[in-house]
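Re: the 213-residue chain
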Amino acid sequence: MSCRVYLVRHGETVWNANMRFQGHADIALTQTGREQAEALAERLSDKTFHAVYSSDLLRAYETAAILAETHSLRVHKRPNLREINFGKWEGLTYKEIIEQFGDSARKWWNNPSITRIPGGEKLTEVAERCYNELRLIVEQHKDQEVLVVAHGGTIRCIVSSVLGINLNQYWRLRLDNTALNIIEFPEWDKGILVLYNDTNHLGGKSGDTFSDK
């Protein structure tokens, strides 16, 4: 059944640059973000992809559209690939969240898998929806290669699920803007992580990803 999935985090946004939590907020790419996507598109120009999927949020879709154009493919939007819903935390910095939501913020950082963000999601909910969506994509593209553009949180959840990593430790997985990650699925329950957080197309320049879980 082997399916190879190229998982890509979206390019930089203003809120990334300002270290603000984005979640479901629909923030566009900066010029730097578009240039990052263009650099990755050039890197992947000699690959043969059978389909391109992305979260329906603008920053992911814009990134996917740049990558898909090189291969003359359309982008299929999948809402289940969205970033975690940060609820009342969206648009805030880490410092502002601690100041305004101290107790609930500390509970979430200690145990995000079962702690609901005020007005948002638990990490287990995010992992379930994005992992199930990826399964549908993999099963639809047996013996093919597909490109999937999503977010830091959703990709970390997918990688954690594939490798059996405790979701409460997912923050240990660094993921930069337009980082390339590859997972090979010889069978759905035997996923192999081939590449993680590769940003060679950026010439050694990568940004801090803390603001976009």
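Strands lie at 3-9, 51-54, 75-77, 145-150, 180-185, 192-198.
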